[in-house]
Amino acid sequence: MSLCSLAVGLGLVAATPTALAAAGFTSGGVAAGSMAASWMSAYGGAVASGSIFATLQSAGAAGVSWATSFLTGSSAMAPCAAVCSLV
Questions:
Q1: Predicted confidence (pLDDT) per residue in 13-34, tens digit
Q2: 24-to-29, 33, 69, 84 alpha-carbon distances in Å
Q3: Got the DSSP string for the chain?
Q4: Could you say which residues form the signal peptide (predicted)?
């Protein structure tokens, strides 16, 4: 594993909660005027249980566990290693 892919993976671990909040998936629900609010309005306000939106909303409301953040970051390491080897 290259230092580049390790840095990207660890960056994603740290950035996952911040990215959710920036998109509008907050502990108080979907933030008004956010990307998440626009996406939700496209559904007409009815979000299917188990959908990607519902999963992101749950993660934003409940917080993202360390394990979930780690899986997000580690799943990106292999593709990043391939890209980093080309650079």
A1: 667 778 888 889 888 889 999 9
A2: 8, 8, 18, 31
A3: --HHHHHHHHHHHHHHHHHHHHHTEETTEEPTTSHHHHHHHHTTT---TTSHHHHHHHHHHH---HHHHHHHHHHHHHHHHHHHHH-
A4: 1-21
Helices and strands per DSSP (H, E), number in the chain = 4, 2
The total of structural domains in the chain comes to 1
Is the Cβ–Cβ distance between 63 and 17 less than 8 Å? yes
Give Cα 52 to chain centroid, integer Å: 11
Residue whose pair of structure tokens reads 């390790």 in the numeric block: 6
Q: What is the mean pLDDT of residues 54-80?
A: 71
Structural domain boundaries enclosing 51: 3-86
- The structure tokens listed for 66 are 């360390």
